[in-house]
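Support reply, case 0932

Customer input (verbatim):
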Amino acid sequence: MEHTDAPDQRAQFAEWLRDQIIRRGFALDARGEQARFARYAGIPGGTLSRLLAGTATPDIVTLRRIATALDISLGLVLLRAGIATEADLTVTSRTDEPPLTPEKAADELGIHEPAARRAFIASVEALRTPPADESG
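Our regenerated output:
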């Protein structure tokens, strides 16, 4: 999906948002239900009204509050709103992997000979250990 702020994208988001809100038990056609959802989501009623009419592009704070209220990921809401693409949301960092150990680094570097491996690991450990406080 390409990022766009076109009226068509806003209308598609409005339709999707309306469907998601209704699925969660808010009868948007009933008097006061739109205001009830706005309060539940913590967003101004006028903002929700413009979003559902397809005349506004929401900011990230509004989208986060909608995602929380709907109990769905912010990423999905960003995609549906046309704010982000799937490529934008692809995680490329190694943040969910355990930290690299000296042993694993030695393996990845191909340091298998026992003496070289011990020297490598000792060197890494020496660099990782903070120096003793010399001010004392």
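We compared this against your earlier run and they match. Two observations from our side: Residues 80 and 136 are 60 Å apart (CA to CA). The mean pLDDT is 85. Please reopen the case if you see a mismatch on your end.
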